[in-house]
Amino acid sequence: MALASHHIEALGAILGPQGLLTAADEMAPYEGGARYDRGRAAFVARPRTTAAVSEVVAYCTGNAIALVPQSGNTGLVGGSTPDESGEQGILSLDRLRATFDLDMDNRSLRVDAGFRLSEINARLEPHGLFFPVDLGADPMAGGMAATNTGGARFLRFGDVRRNTLGLKLVLADEAGTVIECGSGLRKDNTGPDWKQLFIGTGGAFGIVTECTFNLERLPRQIATAFLVPRDGAAVAVLLVEMEERAGAYLSAFEGMSGVAIRHALAHAPSLRNPFPGGDVPGYVILVELSRSWPRRKSEQPLDAVLEELLGDIWEQPGGPLRDAFVGAAPEMWALRHALSEGAKSAGYVVGLDLSFRRGQVMRFRDEMAAVLAAEFPEVEICDFGHVGDGGVHFNLVMPRDPDGGVDLDLAARLRSRVTDVAVERYGGSFSAEHGLGRRNQHIYDRLTPAKFRHMATSFKLATSPAATGAVRL
Hints:
By secondary structure, this protein is of the alpha+beta class.
């Protein structure tokens, strides 16, 4: 049912020219997500300021109009798009771009929610700094905070939660209350760290409109290698060996299945197959060492450091390393970042974003390979992920029907089968860094203890009692 014209007029008056979209062709880019999810919006609100966000939220709250906050719309769990009712409005943050305040002394950045990660780092590069979250996607600042983005260098720098010093938020109450949590301080023990209660909640507790981020020195030296472990059990051994020998230089330890690599190479012919004879191993680890300063005259090159420590590991009797290839970082990372699109090109992807205690990642992987081969032989495991921090993108590729259709019931059964084992048998998480969204809501309802669900609901009622949309805590 279309939204009444007087509501459209009122929202248009708040937002001004280009601030409210209602035409189907204008709303279409906002109605579809990065993977499969697509709905119909009643409108797309595009405020320029936090004050305008507050006015829109207050108006919609007072008139029982549902809003779905949307940042860069790069998520994979249906958390930023409307349902198919046509009754939900999208609150886009893409025009929140007035503030970009770099504090060199504090090594921090106060930035509006609408800046994309690529632009943030492009602006910071001349200053020798960067926001240390490395992703294949290009999200916006507000969405990164709302979903607690992780990334490939979590092992060295941590997630968005660890690198957030402050937030400005709009609450979904009748006043559209604006609050600020944190002010760029790294130490403040005067009470609860309130900003942390909003990070990773997908906007259910409040809409992030401004972030204050910690920054890091830009890496000036990088060395990378592909490692082929002896077997699955050797992966955890290699991780510990690398940490002991490389110390703080170790900035990434990424696992990639041979299946995922082969699909990436097939999908992107520009990628070079780095393996001898083109024979892709069953499992490969991308390791990276980095330093934040230019090479000093008396200092051993980082490539040589990496080769030396890999040689030490190689010489261990019965050691964990079967093979290793030191190579150019851009080429190696290009292959790693092509894995997601490679899987998508192979069929319908049931994407599962899981995390475990680090030593259990490969045990889970081996067990599920056997289970799925027996119960769902038509499904291909196309996994990769941040093994160094216990994360794995356990992607399952389903074949499509000749007409392009997909068995969505099978997809739901797969999702439940895998997450049940991950959570109940291994004590893992069904959402390592992708958030909840509509796609994970039923899993949250089923597997999250009742006490925690009750506490989340209580806090939501205290901060944003009228919050609606894709995430329901």
